[in-house]
């Protein structure tokens, strides 16, 4: 940078001024880009960031996945434990998803108990997994009324660059798909359950789905897969979850009113995206 | 495992759940797998990648076989306290991911997290020029993604923290390299895994700045004679020189690709 400032003082200056402008007037900065039909990171309005999924790399977890959606990095691990089932559902296991947004992932999160954002995300993920019925809870039963599997699905965000929900859902599904449970036998006399280290069987998932998030600016510009810079400036955020057969699982919209046409357009794009992500 | 403290902030599972207990007959197979495959003086290969976390001022990801640690540095930023401090503050926070250990860890921070934080703090604090940042705090956040022994965590964590600080461009006196050793029987084994550390009678973790030929921290725990502990420290110190070149190399390569 020192050598270029001698020959080309305006280039480094320009970048600095652009960065200052971005910090001081983020919305105007974004609007200037939108006027040119492009986004600050160079994508068009409906372009997605590259997604990469790495499965099964953590040996201490029964299943794991690492998802990178652009810069947003989420690690998900599944731990299986044995518990007593609830009295009114003696054949159902438990599925406990959680996401943690620690201070490491972004300067806006401070260390301490889960922030509102993390709690909301956890809840939405829980609803998505439960509403879709992706895992049949009765398949987690070891012995009715006595012992069932509890799958703790924990996500940790390592780098938060917007759209944590999509990445987290993808990570949770990837981790669940790679989860193997040891064969467990319940001893009726002692009341204890012992597992075999040798035989492991994978968890049965019923369907595969993907979620897509959009942000709407000024009721007309729909940006898909918003980054951490764009997210807080959006008027409305919309998330659509579609499964691989094209069926709609859930739609969540928050922030304001959008037209039905926008909603339908987003649902169609989400379906295309689900097909894209099938691999 | 009481989870009542997190009742309202996280999705909760059943009140109590137990880690699966494995049959004893499978243990023999398992014991064979934990025998050491490398020599007593060999450390596990280190993969160190700076600049992984784009949101942070500086970051590093370190992986040594089964230990995976991500570290981010934010700072110097304004101190939250109103008291004036001439020197900057260094705040090290360590967090275990719930799936990082063989038994699932509750997401709350407990004593083990804090003690590792203190060890890493002691290892790196003398290398940073804190007098250049009055009234500021440098936050170092470490997330342990996979854990294979606490000694390995502290050693790798200190390496990651030092690399992340260098990546953030914070002025330092030197890079900190750290190595751990365990006494097994009469012999010294460097860089013990969790199984090896449990089987050992004592461990030593040494952190130093090879560039300045000075030691920043030594943690010794367990039973060992004074001679043996001094030998451990010497071996660790020699190994730290190699580790230092690995760290420097990865930082240089990262800068070149920028």
From TrEMBL, chain A:
Compartment(s) where it occurs, according to its Swiss-Prot or TrEMBL record: Cytoplasm; Nucleus, Nucleolus
A biological process from GO: U5 snRNA 3'-end processing
Any one GO CC term of the record: cytoplasmic exosome (RNase complex)
GO molecular function per UniProt: mRNA 3'-UTR AU-rich region binding
Record key words, sorted: Cytoplasm, Exosome, Nucleus, Ribonucleoprotein, Ribosomal protein, RNA-binding, rRNA processing
InterPro entries attached to this UniProt entry: ExoRNase_PH_dom1, ExoRNase_PH_dom2, ExoRNase_PH_dom2_sf, Exosome_comp_Rrp42_subfam, PNPase/RNase_PH_dom_sf, Ribosomal_Su5_D2-typ_SF, Rrp43
Domain Exoribonuclease phosphorolytic: 47-182, 210-272
Family: Belongs to the RNase PH family.
Protein name as catalogued: Ribosomal RNA-processing protein 43
Organism for this UniProt entry: Suillus plorans
From TrEMBL, chain B:
Skewed-composition ranges (Basic and acidic residues): 1-13
Annotated GO CC locations: cytoplasmic exosome (RNase complex); nuclear exosome (RNase complex); nucleolus
Cell location: Cytoplasm; Nucleus
Signal peptide segment: none
UniProt xrefs under CDD domains: RNase_PH_MTR3
Coiled-coil spans in chain: none
Main location: cytoplasm
SUPFAM superfamilies linked to this entry: Ribonuclease PH domain 2-like (SSF55666), Ribosomal protein S5 domain 2-like (SSF54211)
Keywords: Cytoplasm, Exosome, Nucleus, RNA-binding, rRNA processing
A single BP term in Gene Ontology: rRNA processing
Domain Exoribonuclease phosphorolytic per the UniProt entry, residue ranges: 43-171, 174-235
InterPro entries reported for this sequence: ExoRNase_PH_dom1, ExoRNase_PH_dom2, ExoRNase_PH_dom2_sf, PNPase/RNase_PH_dom_sf, Ribosomal_Su5_D2-typ_SF, RNase_PH
Region entry Disordered, spans: 1-28
Gene Ontology MF annotations: RNA binding
Pfam families in alphabetical order: RNase_PH, RNase_PH_C
Keyword RNA-binding: yes
Family the UniProt entry places it in: Belongs to the RNase PH family.
PANTHER family: EXOSOME COMPLEX COMPONENT, EXOSOME COMPLEX COMPONENT MTR3
Name the UniProt record assigns to this protein: 3' exoribonuclease family, domain 1-domain-containing protein
Species this protein is from: Suillus plorans
């Amino acid at each position: 940078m020192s050598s270029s400032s001698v020959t080309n003082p305006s280039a480094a200056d320009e970048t600095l001024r652009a960065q200052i402008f971005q910090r001081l007037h983020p919305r105007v900065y974004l609007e200037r880009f939108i006027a040119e039909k492009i986004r600050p990171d160079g994508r068009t309005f409906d372009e997605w960031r590259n997604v990469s999924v790495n499965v099964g790399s953590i040996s201490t977890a029964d299943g794991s996945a690492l998802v990178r959606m652009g810069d947003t990095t989420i690690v998900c691990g599944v731990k299986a434990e044995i518990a007593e089932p609830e009295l009114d559902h003696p054949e159902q296991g438990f599925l406990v998803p959680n996401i943690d947004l620690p201070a490491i992932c972004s300067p806006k999160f401070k260390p301490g108990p889960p922030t509102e954002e993390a709690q909301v995300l956890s809840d939405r993920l829980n609803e998505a997994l439960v509403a879709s019925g992706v895992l049949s809870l009765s398949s987690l039963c070891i012995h009715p009324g006595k012992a069932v599997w509890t799958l703790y699905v924990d996500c940790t965000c390592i780098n938060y660059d917007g759209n944590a929900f999509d990445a987290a859902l993808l990570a949770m599904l990837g981790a669940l798909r790679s989860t193997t449970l040891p064969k467990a036998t319940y001893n009726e006399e002692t009341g204890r359950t012992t597992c075999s280290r040798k035989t492991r069987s994978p968890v049965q998932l019923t369907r595969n789905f993907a979620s897509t998030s959009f942000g709407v600016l000024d009721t007309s510009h729909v940006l898909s897969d918003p980054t951490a810079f764009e997210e807080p400036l959006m008027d409305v955020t919309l998330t659509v979850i579609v499964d691989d057969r094209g069926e709609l699982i859930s739609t969540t919209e928050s922030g304001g009113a959008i037209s039905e046409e926008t909603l339908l357009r987003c649902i169609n794009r989400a379906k295309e995206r689900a097909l894209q992500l099938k691999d | 495992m009481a989870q009542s403290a997190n009742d309202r902030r996280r999705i909760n599972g059943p009140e109590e759940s137990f880690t699966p207990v494995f049959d004893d007959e499978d243990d023999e197979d398992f014991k064979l797998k934990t025998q050491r495959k490398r020599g007593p003086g060999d450390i596990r290969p280190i993969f160190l990648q700076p600049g992984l976390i784009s949101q942070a001022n500086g970051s590093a990801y370190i992986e040594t076989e089964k230990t995976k640690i991500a570290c981010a540095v934010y700072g110097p930023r304004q101190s939250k306290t109103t008291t004036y401090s001439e020197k900057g503050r260094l705040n090290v926070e360590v967090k275990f991911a719930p799936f990082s250990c063989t038994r699932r860890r509750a997401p709350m921070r407990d004593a083990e997290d804090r003690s590792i934080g203190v060890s890493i703090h002691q290892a790196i604090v003398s290398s940073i020029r804190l007098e250049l940042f009055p009234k500021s705090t440098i936050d170092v956040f470490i997330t342990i993604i996979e854990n294979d022994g606490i000694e390995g965590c502290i050693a790798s964590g200190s390496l990651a923290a030092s690399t992340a600080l260098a990546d953030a461009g914070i002025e330092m006196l030197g890079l900190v390299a750290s190595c751990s050793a365990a006494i097994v029987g009469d012999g010294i084994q460097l860089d013990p895994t969790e199984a090896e550390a449990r089987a050992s009678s004592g461990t030593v973790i040494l952190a130093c700045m090879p560039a300045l030929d000075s030691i920043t921290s030594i943690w010794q725990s367990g039973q060992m004679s004074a001679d043996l502990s001094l030998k451990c420290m010497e071996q660790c110190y020699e190994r730290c020189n190699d580790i230092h070149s690995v760290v420097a190399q990865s930082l240089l390569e990262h800068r070149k690709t920028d």
